[in-house]
Amino acid sequence: ASLLKEEMAHHALLRESWEAAQEAWEHRRQGLTLPPSFKAQHGIAVMVYTNSSNTLYWELNQAVRTGGSSRELYMRHFPFKALHFYLTRALQLLRGSGGCSRDLGEMVFRGMGSLRFEAKRPGDSVRLGQFASSSLDEAVAHRFGNATLFSLRTCFGAPIEALSVFPKERE
């Protein structure tokens, strides 16, 4: 928790987003069935990330894409270590320990408005290198853009609809 406080002291948007999500979490957590190790910080991190009314999710994704190029860069300059940890752990806990084969996995969709992406061959594996909100509902994904529509079969996603700031997006 001290790392989170330190990072919030240096990043006003992180602090404001965390505090708003913390308040919302107090109301949301009632009635949720969550894994035994799931803590408030995990739920708050999901709520922070899914709040697209500010740019923090975008800033986190930018930092994740560039911050892992070296240990030194990550340790010195990655501004969201605590948020990244809590969000990653939340997804791990929500996903559970079930295995996944290449043929299985959950079908999800992600619409992109500004990125035009064409696979060399349909069915090829793709690594996005960041957190990537997606939806169980293809129509929802189309609302986020039509330049590229990813139809993904993933073993690494987790259902966060109940924790999302926008549950109708079926993330």
UniProtKB/TrEMBL annotation:
GO molecular function ontology, one term from the record: NAD+ poly-ADP-ribosyltransferase activity
Amino-acid biosynthesis as UniProt keyword: no
Keyword hit for Glycosyltransferase: yes
One Pfam family here: ART
EC numbers: 2.4.2.31
Catalysis performed (reactions): L-arginyl-[protein] + NAD(+) = N(omega)-(ADP-D-ribosyl)-L-arginyl-[protein] + nicotinamide + H(+)
Keywords from the UniProt entry: Disulfide bond, Glycosyltransferase, NAD, NADP, Nucleotidyltransferase, Signal, Transferase
InterPro entries: ADP-ribosyltransferase_ARG, ART
Family according to the record: Belongs to the Arg-specific ADP-ribosyltransferase family.
Name of the protein in question: NAD(P)(+)--arginine ADP-ribosyltransferase
